[in-house]
Design brief:
By secondary structure, the protein is mainly α. It folds into two domains: 2-82, no CATH class; 87-152, no CATH class. Helix content is 72%, strand content 0%. It has helices spanning 2-15, 20-43, 56-79, 87-94, 96-118, 131-152. Helix 2 (20-43) packs antiparallel against helix 3 and helix 5 (96-118) packs across helix 6. It starts with a helix and ends in a 7-residue tail after the last helix. The model has no long low-confidence stretch (mean pLDDT 90).
Amino acid sequence: MGTMILGMLASDVLRGLRPPWGKVRWLVLTGAAMLGGGWMLGAAGICPVVKSIWTPSWVLFSGGWCYLFLAAFYALVDIGGHHRIVYPLIVIGANSIFAYCLAHVIPHYAFNCLRRIFGSAIFRVFGDAYEPAVYGAGLLLVYWLLLFILYRRKIFVRI
């Protein structure tokens, strides 16, 4: 619930009447305060910063990072007009529900299928230590290509 409230606050700021750089300033200051507040709650032993149980300090800590990234992207894309550098993210965001569903369907089958087709060495091209990273990068590429096909054909999954 806390994360949703932080998202609503951020959207109110972005839709508000403040000048563009005023919005960036608000997001940066609030994000830094939340990041510091969440970290301080954990460091002081009041409430640990634990993602798996989504503690209040984690909500502040992660929300702070989200506000800082939102400020950076808002300044870069909406104010600066640099749309091309975020094109891969636009493709993912246009079909985010489908992307979420892909993450729960493809990994279970893709890993075993690719191992059977190409052998287990395909994921160890840079060594055993990098096998998870190579697999993850390959899977992300497959996801993105599927989402790109849908994006180009103007097929969007909506609720």
